[in-house]
Amino acid sequence: MLKSYSEILTIIDQIDPVAYARTRNQLSGAVTRLSPYISRGVITLPQVRDRLLDRHKARDCEKLIQELAWREYFQTVWAARGDDIFSDIRFERDDWRHSGIVSAIKEANTGVAVFDAGVRELYDTGYAHNHLRMWLASVSCNLAYAHWHSMGKWLYYHLIDGDLASNFLSWQWVAGTSINKRYTVNQKLINGCSEQSQVRTMLTYDRDDMNTLPTPAVLLPWTPENLQTNYPVVEPLPSAVGDTVCLYTPWTLDPTWRAEQSAARRVLVIDPTWFDRYPVSDAVLAFIVAQGQLVIPQLEVHVGCVTDIDGISDTVATYTRAHQTNTDWPAQFDPAPKLFPAVDGYYKSFFAYWKAVEKTSREN
Fold it and tell me: Mean pLDDT throughout 29-53?
């Protein structure tokens, strides 16, 4: 999955937005596979959009740009609501059976071929198709009645494109705690979006019946979360006294950011404040560090709170790009690039947010 910056730009330039719009719901469809580099901030949403529009007609890019907007929407919700995104944000549910991990899903042993193959791919590569994520969430929350937060932590742990807002707000959308409707799935839908043709599985029912059916026996066993981050051992950083320092989060690894300041030290901060609370696998952490060092020359790595960096309070200047995980850093904040900078604040649904985007676009 590691890509140089030029390789990532080539991937963008090779996107066929018409094929994407036509086949994106298929597990074998023409999806972009850009999510690891977008979520880690190596490329920005406006950058993807602008390169698309340089090569394709605007109407052909509409669906892909709208999908990019979902990611920005989730970020605006996080910015407006903060930690509310980690609990029932609008509609409370009290019918959870447990706050653990459904064993059959964790062990890739559900009997639903697409699920089991998808979970094995997740473990092998750190990637899962967006629809597979939605289907796993639906079965976990709306058939097994496992709490969306615990199952969301399990998925996030393994995703190399893990984004806290996109992940947990997507789980809430499926579970019906951000919109007053639960997303349902059945075997017919899965077969229609994959190359499988399974029949008589635990998901052989009408989608409208999903929320009233008893939980299949295979989905009843569960295990506690038991997730933790194993941090890399790194050498202490040299003192930053008198230096100009650019600080990066694991979600803001843009090699073009302040690139003109060639003498600045560049430091990736892996803050346990977030990685203890929402752990990631060894493979995810290794990807973050390796991808960052691949695209940002001389990138140093600090594991710990940013205030533990020796001399950070006595630099010539300290810069960082704004992100919800670094709001308390002692630095000058550069704004995050946005697709739609004129649209901000909290919108209760993506539909309301998109209406605001369209209104702003007409006015401009």
Answer: 97
Can you state the angle between helices 164-175 and 148-158, rounded to 10 degrees? 140
Fold of 5-84: 1.25.40
Helices (H), 159-226: 164-175, 187-192
Could you tell me if 87 and 169 are in contact, meaning their C-beta atoms sit under 8 angstroms apart?
no
Residue 282 CB neighbour total at 10 angstroms: 11
Q: Please measure the distance between the N-terminal and C-terminal CA atoms of the chain and give it in whole angstroms.
A: 39
CATH class of 244-334: alpha beta
Give pLDDT, residue 1.
85
For residue 65, the model assigns a pLDDT of 97
Dump pLDDT digits (tens) for 88-130.
999 999 999 999 999 999 999 999 999 999 999 999 999 999 9
- Whether pLDDT at 361 is above 90: no
Query: What are the sequence ranges of the domains in the chain?
Result: 5-84, 87-223, 244-334
Confidence of residue 140 (pLDDT cuts 50, 70, 90): very high
Q: What gap in Å lies between CA 342 and CA 334, rounded to an integer?
A: 17
8 within 8 A of 34, measured Cβ to Cβ: yes
Query: Is residue 292 within 8 Å of residue 3, measured between CB atoms?
Result: no
Is the pTM here over 0.85, yes or no? yes
d(CA 27, CA 193): 6
Which of 284, 285, 250 has its CA nearest to residue 125?
284
Six-digit token string for 53: 């529009």
Task: List phi, psi (to 5°) of 333.
Answer: -100, 130
* CATH number for the domain formed by residue range(s) 87-223: 1.10.579.10
